[in-house]
Amino acid sequence: MTFNQEEFTKVTRLRNHSDEFLDVTIQYANNLLAKKLPVIFSLKHFSILINMEFEELVRIIDTRNYLYKFYQIKKKNNKGFRQIVVPYSNIRYVQNYIKTEILDKVPVSEYATGFVKGKSIYNNAKVHVNQQEIMNVDLFKFFDSITEKRVYAVFRSLGYAKNLAWDFAKLTTVKLPEAYLNTFKYDELKLYSEIVNINECVLPQGAPTSPILSNLVTRRLDKRLSSLATKLGVNYSRYADDITFSGNYDQVPNFNLISKIIDDEGFRINWRKAKISKKGRLQLVTGLTVSNDIHIHRKFKKEVKKHIYGCLNFGVENHLNHIEKNDLGFYKEWLLGKIYFIYSIEPKYAKKLLEDYNKIIWLI
């Protein structure tokens, strides 16, 4: 996807474009190249680069709200459901290109640990190990709060032309389906309407471009909150919608100050998940205990051991009947996934679990 300035100049001359046009377009191209981004002049040009008929690309933009599937999945804690809006293959193809060729090349804040290559919940938790106080703040309806206008601003900040930036924003956002909005509780919908017009398009939960776009939109939020943390002499990190501060007693910022900054940046705090944990009590950061180094919570490990014990000693079928599960294939993968999660944080502990798991006699 190289830009040949000499060839471009030659073609421009043949088409009798003005020197001013040539200077402006070359400056535009050089600005993108300096950021190691692909040079794209228009939607027509983009359609050529992605090997898609221009009319098809226009149709995708015009009908984008009908190109997503809505469904719900159970949350890890089995408390409620997570709503997912997944793009169909045609628009997903375009989004994958935008993610790989454009968004993945843009640096995010050093304080962002979620959706970042080479970083994980371990990296996020490591920042806050053995601290006297830990403040956890969760952003309310995170992806749903990031509107098309804010996504447009990201592409404009990268240097893309206005019309093209709007097209990219449209290709990566969607109007939430009514079935999705109906899952909001009354108080949630009321709070949500304070920051987003119900008819506005926002980041879809299941699009490949949404995670990196969320990190790019929150760069200024990360800058403001990390600057505050530095001023107060405390630690700060953000894993997607989970914000954490940690430090000595009475040094972490108060909720009112954090709330003002978050509100100013177009987000809201999910107050049901906001808390401060002091040393000597359970301190969790993105699900990991950090009071004494980094560990999987003992309750989680105990649950996994219980499942393995039940399968080994009573048989898989009897154990499934006991816990009222009837999807063997799903259960088998579910249990293995939990073991590998433990392995990613505590490999020595997980090794014995994996050995016992492999001794289980599965029905299929």
TrEMBL record:
It is an enzyme of class 2 (transferase). GO terms for molecular function: RNA-directed DNA polymerase activity. Its EC number is 2.7.7.49. Pfam families: RVT_1. It comes from the Bacteria. InterPro entries: DNA/RNA_pol_sf (IPR043502), GrpII_Intron_Splice-Mob/Def (IPR051083), Reverse_transcriptase_msDNA (IPR000123), RT_dom (IPR000477). Signal peptide: none annotated. Residues 54-290 form the Reverse transcriptase domain. The keyword Nucleotidyltransferase applies. Keywords: Antiviral defense, Magnesium, Metal-binding, Nucleotidyltransferase, RNA-directed DNA polymerase, Transferase. It catalyses: DNA(n) + a 2'-deoxyribonucleoside 5'-triphosphate = DNA(n+1) + diphosphate. Belongs to the bacterial reverse transcriptase family. PANTHER family: NUCLEAR INTRON MATURASE 1, MITOCHONDRIAL-RELATED (PTHR34047), RNA-DIRECTED DNA POLYMERASE (PTHR34047:SF7). This is RNA-directed DNA polymerase. It comes from Chryseobacterium geocarposphaerae.
